[in-house]
Amino acid sequence: MRLDVFFGPQVAPGDVGGRVVAVIDVLRASTTIAYALGNGARAVIPFDSSEEAVIRSKSFDRSEVRLAGERKMHPIPGFDFGNSPRQFTRQAVEGKTVLITTTNGTAALVAVQGARDIMVASYVNFSPCLAMLRAAARGGADIAIVCAGSDRQFSFEDAACAGRYAREITRRLANVDVNDAARACMLVNGRYRDDLQRLFEDSSHGRALIEAGYAEDLAICGAVDSCPVVPIYADRQITKLGPDRER
């Protein structure tokens, strides 16, 4: 089987077609989506633009939907939430459908439609996502890990997280081919391992979030397995793997 890492949302259909795909946007969309579903949101629907999200919201009763989004780290005016996982409490999202658009993460999700299976992965839901990816790998499925990056550029924190997944997916598995990007990500992960606060402080996006007043979000984003859900993206919406959505 193959395991390839891709940087940014500029993936070609051939990069993900027929594969099991994990999309990673550590700071912060992947974390936020996991927290929304972990706190009882019915579904999360990603959009490329705020205009698309607003138009789609009109097909819901206003009491059933929450608009979430950010541009350049800050909340979109008129939306219910930005992209801080701290906002997605059980009281705020339980039973609601969240329509979300972000600078990086949602673009990556939209770009990988057509894959066999798509999950939203991060540090906060590392173990359950890893279990699914390892099971797929043992079954011979090819895997693609797509790092959302920052403004269509390489991001250190997404690469380190991808490297953590790649290292554990391939552990004790024979006949696994990985691309150079996956090998590089494993090296980045090896440098930081569990020192995620240092990783975030060394990354340009992490520093930008601190300067913008979102330092508390970094602690949440680096809390490994604090939100053990597997968000599955299918039929243009993200729902939590569970009794109602078995794979």
Low-pLDDT segments: none
**Share in β-strands:** 15-25%
Topology as H/E string?
A: EHEHEHEEHEHEHEHEHHHHEE
Going across the biggest sheet, name each strand in turn: 7-2-8-1-9
Helix content: 25-40%
Structural class: alpha/beta
Taking all residues together, what is the mean pLDDT? 94
Outline, from the CA principal axes?
globular
Number of helices: 11
The radius of gyration is 17 Å
| Alpha-carbon distance between the two ends | 20 Å
Biggest sheet details = 5 strands, parallel
- Give the total of beta strands: 11
Please characterize this protein's 3D structure:
The protein has 247 residues and is of the alpha/beta class. Helix content is 39%, strand content 20%. The chain has 11 helices and 11 strands. A hairpin with a 2-residue loop joins strand 4 (65-71) and strand 5 (74-75). The longest helix is centred in the middle third of the chain and has 15 residues, at 156-170. The radius of gyration is 17 Å and the shape is globular. It starts with a strand and ends in a 7-residue tail after the last strand.
